[in-house]
Structures are given as C-alpha cells and as structure tokens.
Fold Peptidase C39-like domain-containing protein.
Amino acid sequence: MLKKNIIIFLIPLFMAVFILSNPIKSLAAKKITFIKLKIPFAVEVPDGKWIDPWKNACEEATITMIDQYYQGKNKLTNAEAKKLMLPIFTLENELFGFNKDTNAEETMQFINKFLSFTATIKENPTLDEIKNELMVKRPVISMHYGFELNNPALRFRQDGSSYHMMVISGFDDAKKEFIVQDSGNPKGLDFRYKYDTILKTLHDFDRITGQANGPARVLFTEPKTLVKVQNGKRIYLISKTQKQYIAHPDIFKKRGWKWANVKIVNKELLNTLTSGEPIWQ
C-alpha cells in the first residue's frame, strides 16, 4: 500500500518536470513562427561604468536574467540587477579562483551548484534545436566570438578575448532573426540578430588560448523546484531526482528567491530523491 501511495504522489510532481524537460510534441507538430519570452533584462554595467568587475560581466548578467525569469520575474531595475550580480563574483572567485570569461563548462558548473535552474552543454546546436527549447519556454545561453557579431554597441578591445555571452529568448521566422537579451548593449533588451549571425559566431572561451575560439556551444536550461513537506521546517531545491537542503533562510534573500514559490510535497516522495550537497551560501 505504501509503495502504491508513493507512486500516486510521484505522478503529479514529476508531471510538471517531465513537461518542462521534454519538447511538447503538439508544439513541435504545430508550425510556430514567432516566440518572445519575457526575460527580465540586466545590463552588465548597472552603473554605466566600464570598470572591473563589471566590464567583463556579461556571464553574470546572463545567468542572473535567466535565474530571475525562472522565478517569475519579468523586470529588473539596475539596482536590483547589481545586488543580484555582486555575490556571483565572490562565489566564482571561491569556486574557480577568477570571475572573468567563464566558459560553458564553468558556467554550467556554477549554475547547477548555486542557481534556481539547471544547465546542460549542447555542442554544435542546430537552428531547430534552439527553437525547440524556446517553444517550451526555456531560454538558451549562447557563447560567441564577439567581433563577428558586428554590433558597434558592444565594447571589445582589439587585444582582448572578444568573448561574449547572451540569452537567446525568442525567434522570428518572418525576419529570420533570433531575439536576445544582450547585456553588453545598454539597448540590448529584445535585441535581434540574424539566425546565421548567431549560429556562425558561436564559440566557447578556450581557457588555454585565452580567446573565444572554442567549439560552437550553448547551454540549454530548465528550472529547479523549491519544496518542503507539510508542517516541515526544511526547504529543499529539487533538480530532477536530486534534493539539496537550503541551510539558512538568508540564502533566499541572497539569491532573490520567493517564499511563495515553495511547493508542498509528500514526505515519502522527498525520501525517494538522492541528497546532494547542502546549499550554504
């Protein structure tokens, strides 16, 4: 009987996870020609000053935008974005020993460890693969050789890496354009690049050469879930089949999480999940 009850409780919680984790066939079958996700935009220099660490903060701005999107926000002030981004530099320094030019692997590692969504690397993505993610409302993180984006609003030094990261948040088949959130451009909200421009400039940062000349990579994303049991005090962050205990209430404030997003789940269900590393900061 207990086993049967566990199965019954498993079905409703993981139904949502399944839908978010798998392209919906009915959407794929239907010809969708335009998508624009409402992503809260953040510029990488919230104070407008191109100084360290902000002048290389396109990665931090990108993951902040998606983190807040998955938490239900659709707008960020410069002050809010700055407050959310600042702790990321510290955590990156602790995790990697640096915070500049985090590549696909490093960015994925940081996201999966600290943020409210997960990321997986997709190498040599096709146009349809990126569009499929957007059709199920999952923004895509893209890495680029910035000079070839040919955008005069982006400030790349001639002797720099020209590495750039953006949020792909939509597409427009009529104009053959991706809609992006380009944090390096103060007017980067819902900015547009041609399909060919995005796909041809995809290059990960190569830690050995110090240049954006690595393979064509993007990060596919999906949300995690905040849960607790009825009358329980412990809150967990669930990612697929793993749970992570949130060790202190202040973590909610630091990460901009909302108590209202915490879902109640059955204790037996929670016990079926493997325990990951507790979240302490």
